[in-house]
Specification:
Blueprint lengths: L30 E6 L1 H4 L13 H14 L3 E6 L7 H14 L4 E5 L2 H4 L6 H16 L4 E6 L14 H17 L4 E3 L21 H14 L19 H25 L11 E8 L3
Parallel strand pairs: 1-2, 1-3, 3-4, 4-5
Antiparallel strand pairs: 2-6
């Protein structure tokens, strides 16, 4: 299904959290903008009052005033499901700059890795361009290095080498542009099915809560407890797992493949859930 595209940027993954240094941010986070695809949009978390999913970025924004000891934070979420890295960079980065963001989170690359025509050099070039444009305007950027897909899924494990290559490049960009990065590679907590939604690709509510903890920790506003599993997950029997596989294939895998064949994106017609800055007040 997928070709195996490699480049000189790919290499053996290093230990998880290589650049996830926990030190205070150089400035207070007062104008925060989330950029990316469905991961940052918050797909499959609980719904907000407006019918859109909440997501880890919403959770982070809600915590920022209290954790920083400031009165309020202004927050926008420009992420849209299905977006490729080139779309994230060329559509959302200019909007974040126009909004006057002082801090941005940027999570992208998984949709590219799932495409047959994946070109890691093009993806990484776009990512570095976006980071450079944000940083040259004084915007602090937090990046994400995603985890090993083969740990949870044989199907998604086919793109494991691509994710490893993207991770290596992301860590290099983070180091070059002095960006904190949340590195999920090798973090066993995400092997727990309870963190994921039924489509096995997007996080569920518990997963979004853990990612929010990880982001706050990378900014020096939390600790490393997000890495530790709450308890050992129970494992279903073989027949139960095979039945779940069949239901997943019909409900999620088949529609996804159909969209790929028809050239349709899950994000077609979807607009950012928070295209303008909204104010979040501190508690207490």
């Amino acid at each position: 299904m997928f070709s195996s595209t490699r480049s000189s940027r790919e290499g053996k993954p290093s230990a998880a959290g290589s650049f996830a240094a926990q030190k205070p941010m150089p400035h207070a986070i007062e104008r925060y903008v989330a950029l990316g695809d469905s991961f940052s949009e918050g797909l499959n978390d609980r719904l907000r009052l407006d019918g859109r999913h909440r997501g880890w970025a919403d959770r982070v924004a809600e915590e920022l005033p209290t954790r920083q000891g400031i009165e309020q934070v202004h927050y926008a979420n420009l992420a849209v499901r299905g977006r490729l890295t080139s779309q994230v960079i060329h559509e959302q980065v200019p909007m974040a700059i126009e909004l006057g963001a002082d801090t941005a989170t940027l999570g992208t690359g998984i949709n590219d890795a799932l495409r047959r025509s994946f070109d890691i050099d093009a993806v990484v070039t776009d990512l570095e361009f976006g980071v450079r444009e944000l940083r040259r305007r004084g915007i602090q950027v937090l990046l994400f290095a995603f985890g090993d897909t083969s740990r949870r899924s044989r199907a998604f494990g086919r793109v494991g080498d691509r994710i490893a290559g993207l991770r290596s490049a992301t860590l290099a960009i983070a180091q070059a542009y002095h960006c904190p990065v949340v590195d999920f590679w090798g973090v066993s907590r995400f092997d727990d099915d309870r963190l994921w939604s039924t489509d096995r690709l997007h996080l569920g509510p518990e997963g979004h809560a853990v990612v929010a903890q990880a982001v706050l920790a990378a900014w020096g506003l939390g600790d490393d407890s997000w890495r530790s599993p709450d308890s050992d997950p129970s494992r279903s029997g073989w027949l139960v797992r095979r039945g779940a596989d069949v239901r997943w294939a019909g409900s999620h895998a088949a529609p996804w493949l159909s969209r790929r064949v028809r050239g349709v994106s899950s994000g077609d017609g979807v607009i950012p859930k928070d295209s303008g800055l909204r104010t979040i007040e501190g508690v207490g």
